[in-house]
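To start, an entry.
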Amino acid sequence: MPLSLATMPEPTVANTLRRPRAPRKTAPPAADTRTAEAPECGASGIDTRYLEDLLGYNARRAALAVISVFLPRMAPYGLRPVDFSVLTLIAHNPGITSRQICVALDILPPNLVGLIKSLDKRGLIERHPHPTDRRAQGLHLSPAGRKLQKNAQATATQLEIDVASRLSAAELDTLKSLLRKVYTR
């Protein structure tokens, strides 16, 4: 019995973020049924031209390519991309507040709380009273945090060079500049 729109469940955040199921595999059409008007396909035999015209698709594919290199190289430091970003902000902005980190990285405060606790528990950060806001605490790297962040930053710099090796320096600068235009307000 087919579902009508009235009986279909409302989409939730959880089920809209799940990876969609792959379509069922069917036998490919016989070779003689293809016409001259059929789209050209890549090596996979799948027409992705529309997706490749989308900014979001290309940005996501590029991000996945970088992350696939980032994760194994940062594994020895026990850092995920967001951990690295937070430590780097603290390293380059001693005394930064959690609120400032949330704004800089577009992270919701409840999501940052656990991350800060985790970095604190690992002994990578220290909290000190903020000099001008008595309600806030300034975040600083501990000596262990400074050492780890310095090594992780060197690793990140090298992985960026490796991942962007097919781009000239000018192309890379242009790409980063254009991407910043998309996500800055």
About this structure: Residues 55-183 form a domain with the Arc Repressor Mutant, subunit A fold (CATH 1.10.10.10).
